[in-house]
């Protein structure tokens, strides 16, 4: 794997960063500002980033997992409060099933513990969670039937926020019935689901990397502005050590994530899932440490609603659970390496 970004990938990274820096929230009070969110959503829509995994004539996605991860990282760093994970995963699911792209904005429904895609049996939907529903008209899941796995859209409308203030989600529970079933043109195989999960884990990791980078930048800026005993607290060695450790964790997470994103298209499904699971274990644990460090650097201010540090932590907590927490990812790593059980490893 060549870890260097191509000129096109660098341009994509810079473009995403500029849009988020210009239109993303810069204070807690700006989250939920409908006018600003509408402008940001329009910019993301016009960019076509949500359709990067849409199939071409040869059924190959328009962009690789690396390009999608680059966008996800930029959105996470800027706390972008528009949908991306959900629509991207919905687009990938439709491509794998050979179902035409939807004209509506879609997201995906995950199981109640967020560990996997939700399934509908005989039209009845078990308790599940529609993820990243900002601006989405409906959520899609898989329907198990006599003809195999099919795509089942479900109307979703909600203003609920959940733990993450920037990416609202809504719990869906019975009795709910998916009235529309879109028959897959090609069977959704076990390998398809494995690769789909690998992509989802890579995107969750990329968002965690961006969240970590944003939290470190927030804390670094505060440390350079906040003065105590006549000097900026960033000049104190103890603060420097905290920020240095947080930076190292975020850079390690980025390396693991880029490898996982590359593996989505370059390796066999099982190997791609193994790489993504390794990244998820690392990123999930690192992100909580980094975001809590950002709060610690802020001192008492970091525990207030007005400080953005808690918004980064909230976003990290949700991304850490997407398609399984660190314990689930560790199980997948061990299974890939032929080792059973995770006792004592959580």
Describe the structure.
By secondary structure, the protein is of the alpha/beta class. It has a domain at 190-336: Butyryl-CoA Dehydrogenase, subunit A, domain 3, CATH 1.20.140. It has 9 helices and 8 strands. It has helices at residues 7-23, 34-47, 65-77, 85-97, 190-225, 237-266, 269-298, 309-321, 326-336; strands at residues 106-111, 119-121, 128-131, 138-145, 148-155, 170-172, 227-228, 231-232. A hairpin with a 2-residue loop joins strand 4 and strand 5. The chain is globular, with a radius of gyration of 20 Å.
Instruction: State the order of secondary-structure elements, H for helix, E for strand.
Output: HHHHEEEEEEHEEHHHH
Q: Strand portion, in percent?
A: 5-15%
Distance between the termini: 30 Å
Full CATH superfamily name of the domain at 190-336: Butyryl-CoA Dehydrogenase, subunit A, domain 3
- CATH class category name of the domain at 190-336: Mainly Alpha
CATH A-level architecture of the domain at 190-336: Up-down Bundle
What's the shape?
A: globular
Largest sheet, described in full?
A: 6 strands, mixed
Helix content: 40-55%
CATH fold-level topology of the domain at 190-336:
Butyryl-CoA Dehydrogenase, subunit A, domain 3
Number of helices: 9
Indicate the mean pLDDT.
Answer: 88
What does the secondary structure layout of this molecule look like, with pairings?
Blueprint: H1 7-23, H2 34-47, H3 65-77, H4 85-97, E1 106-111, E2 119-121, E3 128-131, E4 138-145, E5 148-155, E6 170-172, H5 190-225, E7 227-228, E8 231-232, H6 237-266, H7 269-298, H8 309-321, H9 326-336
Parallel strand pairs: 1-4, 2-4
Antiparallel strand pairs: 1-3, 3-6, 4-5, 7-8
């Amino acid at each position: 794997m060549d870890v260097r970004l191509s000129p096109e990938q660098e341009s994509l990274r810079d473009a995403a960063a500029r849009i988020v820096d210009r239109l993303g929230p810069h204070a807690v009070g700006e989250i939920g500002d409908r006018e600003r969110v509408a402008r940001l959503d329009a910019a993301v829509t016009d960019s076509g980033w949500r359709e990067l995994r849409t199939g071409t004539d040869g059924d190959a996605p328009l962009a690789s997992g690396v390009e999608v991860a680059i966008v996800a990282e930029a959105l996470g760093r800027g706390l972008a409060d528009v949908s991306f994970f959900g629509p991207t995963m919905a687009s990938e699911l439709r491509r794998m099933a050979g179902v035409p792209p939807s004209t509506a904005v879609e997201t995906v429904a995950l199981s109640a513990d967020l560990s996997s895609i939700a399934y509908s049996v005989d039209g009845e939907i078990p308790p599940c969670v529609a993820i990243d529903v900002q601006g989405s008209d409906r959520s899609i899941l898989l329907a198990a039937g006599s003809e195999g796995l099919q795509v089942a859209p479900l109307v979703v409308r909600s203003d609920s926020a959940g733990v993450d203030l920037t990416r609202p989600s809504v719990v869906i529970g019975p009795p709910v019935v998916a009235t529309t079933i879109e028959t897959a043109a090609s069977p959704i195989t076990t390998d398809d689901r494995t690769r789909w999960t690998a992509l989802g884990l890579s995107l969750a990791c990329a968002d965690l990397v961006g969240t970590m980078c944003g939290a470190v930048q927030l804390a670094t800026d505060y440390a350079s502005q906040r003065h105590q005993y006549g000097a900026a607290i960033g000049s104190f060695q103890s603060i420097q050590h905290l920020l240095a450790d947080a930076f190292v964790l975020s850079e390690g997470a980025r390396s693991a994530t880029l490898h996982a994103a590359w593996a989505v298209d370059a390796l066999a499904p099982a190997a791609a899932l193994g790489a993504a699971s390794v990244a998820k274990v690392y990123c999930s644990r690192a992100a909580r440490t980094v975001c809590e460090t950002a709060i610690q650097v802020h001192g008492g201010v970091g525990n207030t609603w007005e400080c953005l540090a808690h918004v980064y932590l909230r976003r990290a907590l949700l991304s850490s659970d997407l398609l399984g927490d660190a314990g689930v990812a560790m199980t997948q790593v061990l299974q890939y390496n032929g080792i059973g059980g995770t006792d004592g490893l959580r």
